[in-house]
Known about the structure:
- By secondary structure, the protein is α+β, with helices and mostly antiparallel strands.
- It has helices at about 1-10, 45, 55-65, 75-80, 100-105, 180-185, 210-215, 225-230, 235-245, 255-260, 275-285, 290-300, 305-315, 320-335, 340-345, 350-360, 375-390, 400-410, 420-425, 430-445, 455-470, 470-485; strands at about 40, 70-75, 90-95, 110, 115-120, 130-135, 145, 165, 170-175, 195-200, 205, 220, 250-255, 365, 370.
- The strands form 4 sheets. An 8-stranded mixed beta sheet has the order 1-11-10-2-3-6-5-4.
Amino acid sequence: MLKKIIHRVFGKAAEPALKDAPAKAIKASGKTSQASKRNEVPAKVHGIDRDLIDPRAIETVETLQDAGFESYIVGGAVRDLLLGLHPKDFDIATAATPEEVKRLFRRAFIIGRRFRIVHVIFGGGRDHEVFEVSTFRANVDVADATKVKGNERSQKSALDGIKHAVDSSGRVLRDNVWGDIASDAARRDFTVNAMYYDPSSEVLVDYHGGMVDAKNRVIRMIGEPAARYREDPVRIIRAVRFSAKLSKLGFKLEPKTLEPIKKLKKLLDDVPPSRMFDEMLKLVQTGHSIASIQTLKELGLERGIYPLLDVIVERADSPMVKGMLGDTDARVKAGKPVAPSYLLACVLWQDVIEGWTARREGLTLGKQKFPKIPTFPALAESVDAVFEERIGDVSGRGKLGADMRDIWMMQPRFEKRVGSSPHTLVENIRFRAGFDFLRLRGECGAEFGETNAAELAELAAWWQDFQDADHAGRMALLEQARLQPKTLDEGGAKSTKPRRKRKPKTNSNGDGIHSAGI
């Protein structure tokens, strides 16, 4: 630790804080054409402001270094620091294996199969922060990998215990062969994301000219682009995402990196749906969703990458979806959480409302004639049909799917403004998302044929008042709702069915106040 302080004070930053750990490194085998000379850039040249770094990221790096493992902040965080930006995430690369990393931290978890990494967690609750720690990987030749027939879905058991495996198209299914920093840099996607920064010595390590490309605002693939896309087709989506993310800073895809993308997009068909689903969410909820969709269109990739992404791009200009994407970008930039369930609930509401209306009113949708059924069963059946058609088994049965169902199934419940129902609903963990969705329906519902959008807007205003009011205010609002003429039924359509009147009850104190079932 004293050596690090001396380096920081007296500027001896030309040497890395720790020597490479050759015992932990496996030299890259096969081709070495992507290897490049190590360039160590001192603080006075790169100009990174160390104060922009999260102290917990520095603590993570120094804990690993103190245990004898070469370690750096790596990737997009280094790029952002070079540009004078405050990184949102800090990834760390180290010579330590996942098991060695896990032993050094109180809260650390090994995750992943294709790439095994460690999540080091600081804090708890909403204030917790996760730092992703990955082991230096060898840039091994695809020819040396174990060949597996089929893909990750069909050959899951065959991949058990294999450190490096590819399928028949050359796509990497397992990549857990440890290497040194040079090989790790060679296997990264883009030069501007392949720089390493040691916060102890303040040295920046650059193997592939990333610092120059960052200065010139160029997004360049390391190695031969077509071969790298075949190795991992998801790099196509990453190229789109980084191009969109960095476009406002003037970055552009280098021509050789751009040229093969459209021709090779069919390779994405073999990527497991769960991985494609995750990559799709990164496109639309990392703060640059509108720019990402525009980039997809500019590159001719608006269709054919992933069915659900096709729907998002297709509906991106509709008021509801466009408003939701804009709000999502704003929340990410403000450091606020975003929920993929809310995003997808907005995107797929058009399908839900069409199926709901057809079942509730006994209409024909497409080639199918539906019998007329009550509001809640009609909505439930429509939701099931949308999950089956649009999402399948990827997330429809998990937490995300459950949250989407809650948002949708909550909509007719907003009509029940009697008894204890409003009090119960406002305490629901998904109430805020369901309420925001109701308000968005009031603003944009007309585009989906919700002719009662004005009434929905009034209903949303009532619920805003209700959630902000104290107990007495809530009781007054319930009385106001009781006296108002009924304009909507539970499904959001005009109601013609007379309601049965009930004799008012008094509470147990006999004070004459009508009971709300509390």
